[in-house]
Automatic annotation (TrEMBL):
This is Uncharacterized protein. It comes from Spumella elongata.
Amino acid sequence: GTTYAASSSGHLDCLQYAIEQGCPVPENITVSAASAPTLDCLQYLVSVGYKLTPATSASAAQFSLKHLAGVHSLGCHWDENTCVKAASCRASDASILQYAHEHGCPWDAGTCAAAARVGNLKALVYAHEHGCPWDETTTLYAVLSDEINCLEYAHKHGCPIPADIDVRAD
Protein backbone atom coordinates (compact mmCIF):
# COMPACT_ATOMS: atom_id res chain seq x y z
CA GLY A 1 0.00 0.00 0.00
CA THR A 2 0.82 3.66 0.02
CA THR A 3 2.31 3.83 3.51
CA TYR A 4 4.49 0.78 2.87
CA ALA A 5 5.79 2.23 -0.40
CA ALA A 6 6.52 5.60 1.20
CA SER A 7 8.26 4.13 4.25
CA SER A 8 10.41 1.66 2.31
CA SER A 9 11.44 4.37 -0.15
CA GLY A 10 12.26 6.88 2.56
CA HIS A 11 9.69 9.45 1.42
CA LEU A 12 8.89 11.03 4.77
CA ASP A 13 6.57 13.73 3.44
CA CYS A 14 4.51 11.16 1.55
CA LEU A 15 4.40 8.85 4.56
CA GLN A 16 3.23 11.63 6.87
CA TYR A 17 0.58 12.73 4.39
CA ALA A 18 -0.69 9.18 3.84
CA ILE A 19 -1.00 8.54 7.57
CA GLU A 20 -2.70 11.90 8.16
CA GLN A 21 -5.21 11.03 5.43
CA GLY A 22 -6.04 7.73 7.10
CA CYS A 23 -4.32 5.35 4.68
CA PRO A 24 -3.96 1.86 6.13
CA VAL A 25 -0.67 1.21 7.88
CA PRO A 26 0.60 -2.38 7.87
CA GLU A 27 1.47 -3.88 11.22
CA ASN A 28 5.09 -4.39 10.12
CA ILE A 29 5.59 -0.84 8.80
CA THR A 30 8.77 -0.32 10.84
CA VAL A 31 10.37 -3.31 9.10
CA SER A 32 10.08 -1.63 5.71
CA ALA A 33 11.18 1.72 7.10
CA ALA A 34 14.33 0.16 8.60
CA SER A 35 15.71 -0.58 5.14
CA ALA A 36 14.85 2.76 3.52
CA PRO A 37 17.74 4.92 2.27
CA THR A 38 17.48 7.04 5.44
CA LEU A 39 15.98 6.40 8.85
CA ASP A 40 13.77 9.51 8.79
CA CYS A 41 10.60 7.51 8.17
CA LEU A 42 11.44 5.07 10.94
CA GLN A 43 12.11 7.87 13.40
CA TYR A 44 8.79 9.47 12.46
CA LEU A 45 6.90 6.19 12.87
CA VAL A 46 8.39 5.68 16.33
CA SER A 47 7.52 9.25 17.31
CA VAL A 48 3.85 8.67 16.46
CA GLY A 49 3.64 5.37 18.32
CA TYR A 50 4.49 2.56 15.91
CA LYS A 51 6.38 -0.28 17.54
CA LEU A 52 9.85 -1.53 16.77
CA THR A 53 10.20 -5.30 16.66
CA PRO A 54 13.08 -7.75 16.32
CA ALA A 55 12.15 -7.98 12.63
CA THR A 56 12.88 -4.25 12.39
CA SER A 57 16.45 -4.76 13.54
CA ALA A 58 16.88 -7.75 11.22
CA SER A 59 15.77 -5.60 8.31
CA ALA A 60 18.24 -2.88 9.26
CA ALA A 61 21.04 -5.43 9.63
CA GLN A 62 20.59 -6.41 5.99
CA PHE A 63 20.94 -2.80 4.90
CA SER A 64 23.93 -1.22 6.63
CA LEU A 65 25.83 -0.76 9.87
CA LYS A 66 24.49 2.80 10.05
CA HIS A 67 20.93 1.51 9.86
CA LEU A 68 21.45 -1.17 12.49
CA ALA A 69 23.11 1.29 14.87
CA GLY A 70 20.29 3.77 14.27
CA VAL A 71 17.59 1.20 14.98
CA HIS A 72 19.47 0.07 18.07
CA SER A 73 19.74 3.67 19.31
CA LEU A 74 15.94 3.92 19.06
CA GLY A 75 15.68 1.06 21.56
CA CYS A 76 14.73 -1.67 19.14
CA HIS A 77 14.92 -5.17 20.57
CA TRP A 78 16.61 -7.85 18.54
CA ASP A 79 16.89 -11.58 18.37
CA GLU A 80 19.03 -14.22 16.69
CA ASN A 81 17.60 -13.34 13.30
CA THR A 82 19.41 -9.99 13.43
CA CYS A 83 22.77 -11.78 13.52
CA VAL A 84 21.61 -14.18 10.80
CA LYS A 85 20.77 -11.22 8.54
CA ALA A 86 24.01 -9.42 9.45
CA ALA A 87 26.08 -12.51 8.59
CA SER A 88 24.27 -12.98 5.31
CA CYS A 89 25.35 -9.63 3.91
CA ARG A 90 27.31 -10.23 0.75
CA ALA A 91 29.66 -7.35 1.47
CA SER A 92 32.36 -9.81 2.59
CA ASP A 93 32.49 -7.87 5.79
CA ALA A 94 31.83 -8.65 9.42
CA SER A 95 31.27 -5.11 10.73
CA ILE A 96 27.48 -5.35 10.98
CA LEU A 97 27.68 -8.73 12.70
CA GLN A 98 30.42 -7.47 14.99
CA TYR A 99 28.34 -4.45 16.00
CA ALA A 100 25.33 -6.61 16.81
CA HIS A 101 27.40 -9.11 18.78
CA GLU A 102 29.32 -6.46 20.72
CA HIS A 103 26.03 -4.81 21.69
CA GLY A 104 24.51 -7.98 23.11
CA CYS A 105 22.54 -9.37 20.19
CA PRO A 106 22.09 -13.12 20.62
CA TRP A 107 23.16 -15.54 17.93
CA ASP A 108 22.84 -19.20 17.16
CA ALA A 109 24.06 -21.73 14.60
CA GLY A 110 21.97 -19.96 11.97
CA THR A 111 24.50 -17.11 12.01
CA CYS A 112 27.38 -19.30 10.82
CA ALA A 113 25.13 -21.07 8.33
CA ALA A 114 24.01 -17.74 6.86
CA ALA A 115 27.60 -16.56 6.45
CA ALA A 116 28.54 -19.80 4.69
CA ARG A 117 25.48 -19.65 2.46
CA VAL A 118 26.61 -16.35 0.92
CA GLY A 119 30.35 -16.92 1.19
CA ASN A 120 30.96 -14.25 3.82
CA LEU A 121 34.16 -15.75 5.17
CA LYS A 122 34.93 -12.73 7.36
CA ALA A 123 31.58 -13.07 9.12
CA LEU A 124 32.01 -16.84 9.48
CA VAL A 125 35.48 -16.43 11.01
CA TYR A 126 34.33 -13.63 13.31
CA ALA A 127 31.36 -15.63 14.55
CA HIS A 128 33.34 -18.82 15.11
CA GLU A 129 36.25 -17.05 16.83
CA HIS A 130 33.81 -15.31 19.18
CA GLY A 131 32.02 -18.45 20.27
CA CYS A 132 29.03 -18.63 17.96
CA PRO A 133 27.85 -22.23 17.66
CA TRP A 134 27.70 -23.97 14.32
CA ASP A 135 26.37 -27.23 13.06
CA GLU A 136 26.18 -29.36 9.93
CA THR A 137 24.09 -26.70 8.22
CA THR A 138 27.15 -24.44 7.97
CA THR A 139 29.06 -27.10 6.05
CA LEU A 140 26.06 -28.01 3.94
CA TYR A 141 25.36 -24.40 2.94
CA ALA A 142 29.02 -23.85 2.05
CA VAL A 143 28.85 -26.88 -0.25
CA LEU A 144 25.48 -26.00 -1.79
CA SER A 145 26.57 -22.44 -2.52
CA ASP A 146 29.98 -23.56 -3.82
CA GLU A 147 31.82 -21.41 -1.28
CA ILE A 148 35.09 -23.32 -0.99
CA ASN A 149 36.76 -20.82 1.36
CA CYS A 150 33.93 -21.16 3.87
CA LEU A 151 33.91 -24.94 3.49
CA GLU A 152 37.67 -25.19 4.04
CA TYR A 153 37.55 -22.92 7.07
CA ALA A 154 34.66 -24.77 8.66
CA HIS A 155 36.20 -28.18 8.00
CA LYS A 156 39.65 -27.20 9.31
CA HIS A 157 38.11 -25.77 12.47
CA GLY A 158 35.99 -28.77 13.36
CA CYS A 159 32.55 -27.85 12.09
CA PRO A 160 30.39 -30.97 11.91
CA ILE A 161 30.03 -32.41 8.43
CA PRO A 162 26.85 -34.09 7.20
CA ALA A 163 27.39 -37.84 6.83
CA ASP A 164 26.69 -37.73 3.09
CA ILE A 165 29.42 -35.15 2.33
CA ASP A 166 32.99 -36.34 1.77
CA VAL A 167 35.49 -33.50 2.17
CA ARG A 168 38.65 -35.61 2.15
CA ALA A 169 41.32 -34.44 -0.25
CA ASP A 170 41.92 -36.98 -3.00
